[in-house]
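Supplementary Note 3. Input sequence used for the single-chain structure prediction.
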Amino acid sequence: MPYRLDYSTWLSDGDRRLLGEAEAKLLRLIAESGSLASASAAASMTVDDAAALLERAERCCRTPLTSSADGVVRLTAEGERLLQEFECRSRRMADQLRHLYRNPVFGTDGIVIQEDRVLLVRRRNDPFAESYALPGGFMEVDESAEECVVREVEEETGLRTEVLDLVGAYTRPGRDPRGHICTLAYRLVVRSGSLRAGDDASEAAFFSMEALPELAFDHRDIVTDAGRRCAWRK
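The predicted structure, written as discrete structure tokens, is reproduced below.
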């Protein structure tokens, strides 16, 4: 299945929130139908819930957003202005997000091997939810790759580690369904801590290099490369 980045848009005036996606959707439907009842039905809401949402939005905006005459509900001039501004910002954000992964994004994966067993986690979230993978994650701003892999391994497994060496850079387009995501894979040695699943991992355990479960992404290739490096160093 394709993956997308979820996002939310809203208008604000300083710290005061004006319109969010739900309010904007309701205003758009009112403008199209001329009826609060029809708009609420199209939004899968009760009329009372739609009226309460509209009332909260008007209270936040400190001005009426709709008016009613001859049984027809219309947007006020301010309601139209705010809806147009919301939709303009929403389009700009959607365009920015479409290009977000046009440039490669970097992350790290940690490889801890003890007595021919490698540390794996069971992923809690998509992509590859419930599959096993190496512990790892995305680099943060002002963080080195080495700092990232140590942090991610501790967050997901409870083990505090130290980097031994770089196994390789895995940059093939298509290796991650979320976009062009590159990973730097490091061998690590455990210094302290106790093994436990944490963060977005539902399980953390050591598995025999000779009997690995099916791994997410291209992590089997990474483990194989790390195993060769271990054999070369012996």
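Confidence is low (pLDDT under 50) at residues 1-7. The two ends are 42 Å apart (CA to CA).
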